[in-house]
């Protein structure tokens, strides 16, 4: 029974699929069967944390698990939810709180809704916007599908965002289907509001005020995303992208480089984010940091809570997103570490044996680098096609090839560095001196 005032929706405990048939594995050899053994005296440990299926976020299939009805790894299928309760928050709409003590790692509830394609998600976002709907709940399932809990969903749709969450979302495979569960990140006492990080990705549009009230609150949803920071020029400690000495300075009359070096301009006042008035949505376009009044549904995770809209994910709809301002001299992120050339390092060792080892390691590493580049060129069209999307939908053989090439490169790097360190710390003993010539017999 829902409290009075909750917007009507259809409560479901399992995803409903629109436009595609439910994928159920029919072949026995495709079903993941664990190797757990049931201890009749300790049935509560059946399919526990050491279960192979649990370790891979896969639920056991009824009828195939060695532990039978005692299996503890069927929480999604059996709806083994924690006790929760809806309540009215102050300024953030409805929320969900723990109605019992919840342990860290415990499964709380499944995020259920209608599983729809990215095209359908885009169309629905337009419809919700046109209708002025204030409660839209769409999250990204993978690169191709989304879960819309707006009209049909579980109570998980009411869990609010927090920059300091006590819950997190995890993807599990259940009977061949990917499902989203909400789990406790820490021990949660009864009466505590449940919250998780929406991982909001900003692609343009309005500034949505974050109302979580956490000590480390980012102030705006998506403020940590690259698009938001580039658009708003958020400065961080050590950010030298826009310092004066990064730009060439010329005389305006002669357009020639000055003969003397221009001194770097410094200030004692720290740079900070532009201050805006406290409101849920900032639509002021006169300060250089505002956005279009029209909401841009350009994400895959849309959730409105307390009047604010949450958008993150993959589909792009509406006006094209505004490219962030970039400096022509902007530095790219780099590790600051120069690559090690094994052949040059080999010349620093006196031992011919060590030199041969390092040269061999360098040759293997070069081959691994060429292979990795080749594989990347092969899968790059698929990556560029999806842009920011998740690569969950890439073919398995392509993913395996990329993983194999990456591991080979890492292994080659490790072998080279290990060989260098080993021979520096424990150099090989010098070869024994040649034996002295035998004494000549005295002439008789």
Automatic annotation (TrEMBL):
Keyword Hydrolase on entry: no
Compositionally biased residues, Basic residues: 322-336
Sequence ranges assigned to domain Post-SET in this UniProt record: 206-222
Any GO MF annotation of the entry: histone H3K36 methyltransferase activity
Domain named AWS: residues: 29-80
Protein name, entry field: Histone-lysine N-methyltransferase ASHH1
Tree of life domain: Eukaryota
Database matches in SUPFAM superfamilies: SET domain
Example GO BP: regulation of DNA-templated transcription
Keywords (A to Z) from UniProt: Chromosome, Methyltransferase, Nucleus, S-adenosyl-L-methionine, Transferase
The SET domain, residue ranges: 82-199
Keyword Nucleus among record annotations: yes
Main location: nucleus
Cellular compartment(s): Chromosome; Nucleus
Pfam family membership, one: AWS
Taxonomy of the source species: Eukaryota, Viridiplantae, Streptophyta, Embryophyta, Tracheophyta
Biased composition (Pro residues): 426-444
Region (Disordered): 314-340, 425-444
GO cellular component, one term: chromatin
Natural source organism: Lactuca sativa
InterPro entries named among the record's database cross-references: AWS_dom, Post-SET_dom, SET2_Histone-Lys_MeTrsfase, SET_dom, SET_dom_sf
Gene3D superfamilies in the record: SET domain
């Amino acid at each position: 029974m829902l409290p009075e005032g909750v917007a009507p929706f259809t409560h479901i405990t399992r995803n409903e699929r629109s436009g595609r048939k439910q994928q159920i594995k029919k072949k026995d050899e495709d079903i993941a069967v664990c190797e757990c053994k049931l201890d009749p005296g300790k049935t509560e440990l059946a399919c526990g944390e050491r279960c192979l299926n649990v370790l891979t976020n896969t639920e056991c299939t009824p009828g195939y698990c060695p532990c039978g009805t005692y299996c503890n790894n069927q929480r999604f299928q059996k709806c083994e939810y924690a006790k929760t309760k809806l309540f009215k928050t102050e300024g953030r709409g409805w929320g969900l709180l723990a109605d019992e003590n919840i342990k860290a790692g415990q499964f709380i509830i499944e995020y259920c809704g209608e599983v729809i394609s990215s095209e359908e998600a885009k169309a629905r976002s337009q419809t919700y916007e046109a209708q002025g709907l204030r409660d839209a709940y769409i999250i990204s399932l993978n690169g191709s599908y989304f879960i819309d809990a707006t009209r049909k969903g579980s109570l998980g749709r009411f869990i609010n965002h927090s920059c300091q969450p006590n819950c997190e979302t995890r993807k599990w495979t259940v009977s061949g289907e990917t499902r989203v569960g909400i789990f406790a990140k820490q021990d949660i006492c009864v009466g505590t509001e449940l919250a998780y990080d929406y991982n909001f990705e900003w692609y343009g549009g309005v500034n949505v005020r974050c109302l979580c009230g956490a000590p480390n609150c980012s102030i705006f949803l998506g403020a940590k995303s690259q698009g938001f920071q580039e658009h708003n020029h958020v400065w961080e400690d050590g950010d030298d992208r826009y310092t004066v000495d990064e730009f060439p300075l010329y005389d305006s009359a002669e357009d020639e480089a000055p003969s003397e070096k221009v001194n770097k301009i410094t200030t004692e006042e720290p740079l900070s984010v532009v201050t805006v008035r406290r409101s849920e949505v900032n639509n002021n376009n006169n300060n250089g940091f505002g956005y279009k009044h029209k909401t841009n549904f350009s994400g895959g995770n849309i959730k409105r809570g307390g009047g604010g809209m949450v958008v993150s994910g993959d589909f792009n709809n509406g006006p094209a997103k505004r490219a962030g301002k970039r400096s022509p001299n902007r530095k790219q992120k780099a590790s600051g570490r120069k690559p090690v050339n094994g052949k040059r390092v080999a010349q620093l060792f006196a031992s011919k044996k060590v030199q041969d080892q390092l040269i061999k390691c360098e040759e293997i590493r070069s081959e691994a680098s060429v292979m990795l580049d080749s594989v990347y060129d092969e899968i790059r069209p698929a990556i560029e096609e999806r842009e920011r999307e998740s690569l969950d939908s890439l073919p398995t053989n392509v993913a395996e090839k990329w993983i194999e090439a990456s591991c080979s490169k890492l292994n080659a790097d490790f072998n080279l560095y290990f060989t260098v360190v080993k021979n520096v710390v424990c150099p090989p003993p010098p070869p024994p001196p040649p034996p002295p010539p035998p004494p000549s017999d005295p002439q008789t």
